[in-house]
Design a protein that fits this description.
alpha+beta; 5 helices; globular
């Protein structure tokens, strides 16, 4: 019986890991008006600009170094589990990432069967075919207007996100798009496909930060409610970015970066 319970828990955690592996990318006020104001772009126009600018940034970014801190807290059947892992990352275009584990503490099970599976899942999501089918494009999503907000970091379009397929790497929810750079600064929602029958609900939030003209992940937070009564919280902090090789970006922002 104990072995059966442990296998069931393994399945829950592994499938939870798959649900957040893909993304591996603050509004202060808003009008709440769901119609497009005069002079603003419509949702499809914003989506096309987002797609175009993402492609430009992806083509220009050739290499960066960063650090990640993975932390997981599980409370519920058959007991509490906590773990943390620090990883050094080297990215080389177009989609190669080298991971070096710096430290790991806590539950060995979580480290081996969640954190390291997340790294493997990120490599899976990064291949050319998966990137094409999971990108924030009109081919994968329908976009509708949710609002337009003015924040301390600038104006942002807020769009509802409706996945066209039940892909485990897609989301249903909202995105906040920087109105100047047309880059995603925040994603809030849930997986388009429930990662497991054992998971009742999963809420996902991703935030991004601008580094030398490139928008990169800054924080991921995933909270899942397990049908057996447990709750799992997974967080990933991205820090210490260093752009080591990049082609010039078009536009005013890159000119400012080059002058510093």
């Amino acid at each position: 019986m104990l072995r059966k319970r442990n296998r069931r828990l393994v399945g829950i955690w592994l499938l939870l890991a798959c649900s957040v592996a893909a993304t591996s990318q603050q509004p202060s006020s808003g009008s709440g008006d769901h119609s497009i104001q005069k002079g603003l772009l419509g949702p499809d126009q914003v989506a096309r600009q987002l797609e175009e600018r993402n492609a430009q940034r992806a083509a220009a970014l050739e290499q960066f170094h960063s650090t990640r801190i993975y932390h997981m807290q599980y409370r519920g059947f058959p007991g509490a589990r906590d773990a943390e892992m620090v990883v050094k990352v080297i990215y080389n275009a177009p989609n190669k990432k080298d991971f070096t584990v710096v430290s790991q503490t806590g539950s060995k099970f979580v480290i081996e069967h969640v954190f390291k599976k997340l790294l493997e899942g990120e490599q899976e999501a990064a291949n050319d075919e998966n990137r094409q089918h999971t990108a924030l494009t009109t081919a994968n999503y329908d976009f509708t207007v949710a609002g337009y907000e003015i924040t301390k970091d600038g104006a942002q379009y807020v769009l509802n996100l409706w996945p066209k397929t039940k892909n485990k790497f897609l989301y249903r929810g909202k995105i906040w798009v920087d109105a100047k750079d047309f880059a995603v600064v925040r994603i809030q929602g849930e997986p388009a496909k429930n990662p497991s029958v054992w998971i009742k609900k999963t809420e996902v939030e991703h935030r991004y930060v601008k580094v030398d003209g490139f928008w990169l992940p800054s924080e991921n937070h995933t909270e899942s409610v397990i049908r057996l009564g447990g709750r799992a919280i997974l967080s990933i902090e991205y820090k210490d970015y260093r752009i080591t090789k990049a082609a010039p970006l078009r536009g005013v922002d890159q000119a400012r970066v080059d002058s510093n």
